[in-house]
Structures are given as structure tokens and as C-alpha cells.
Amino acid sequence: MKNVTITLDEETARLVRVRAAERDMSVSRYIGELLRADIRASREYQEAYRAFLAEKPLKLRKSAADRYLTREEAHDRAGLRRR
Asked: What is the rounded end-to-end Cα distance, in angstroms, of the chain?
């Protein structure tokens, strides 16, 4: 474990002590857990983003002769409503 010194304003320090106490943790452990969760979430996001970009684009048409839906066809919800 590495010791790190951080500087907090009085109000933030008070709130951190309260949050840590609510979770029955030391302030040091609480801040460490927050940082680990943030780093893990960032890493997972980056991995998902890379996987998304690695996918081949989805073709919207099978051939040039196929047509796209019109805006009206794409947004027609009348068929979904029950009368």
C-alpha cells in the first residue's frame, strides 16, 4: 500500500468522514474504494468502446436497389396502438 496525502476543504473533509463512518470504514479506505471503482468503470467503458469500434458497420440495405424507409414509415406508430 502506498500512502498519499490529499488536501480537502473543511466541508468536504467533514462530509467524507461522515460517509466513511456510515460505511464503517476509515477515510483512507473509503477514498481508496471510490478511486478503485472510478478507475474500474473507466477501464470497462474504454474496453466496451474499443469493442464497439471494432465491429463492422451494419448494412442498412442489402443492395443498391433496396430503398430506405421514409421518415413517415420509420416513425409510424399507428400500427402499434390498440384501437
From this structure: 66
